[in-house]
Amino acid sequence: MSFFSYILLPHFFSHCCYGGRAIADALLQLAEKRREATPAEKIAQLEEQRGGLIAKRLGLEKKIKELEMRANGATREESMQGQERRR
Questions:
Q1: What is the pTM assigned to this prediction?
Q2: Which domain holds residue 68?
């Protein structure tokens, strides 16, 4: 671990906020777990993150499309046409 991880991080959190030492310890444990993860575990974590990012991208693209349609004179209902929830 780096100097920052051992010395500065716990010191910073323990002095800046309530429960800071516990937060610093949790962050150190998380960093250590990431370092010790097998390549398969790292790949699984990255794939999970990728899925979340793709979902965010799709949501943002939908919002951009709606805004572009509204800017071109469409009503809110028209801009949301075809995006009803399917049950």
A1: 0.54
A2: 38-87
- What does residue 14 show for φ and ψ, rounded to 5 degrees? -70, -20
SS3 content of the chain, % helix, strand, coil (to 5): 80, 0, 20
**51 and 61 share a domain?**
yes
Q: In whole angstroms, how far apart are CA 44 and each of 38, 40, 58, 65, 71? A: 10, 6, 21, 32, 41
Q: Which residues of the chain have pLDDT under 70?
A: 1-19, 82-87
Structure token pair of residue 77? 């209902």
Return the pLDDT at 7. Answer: 54
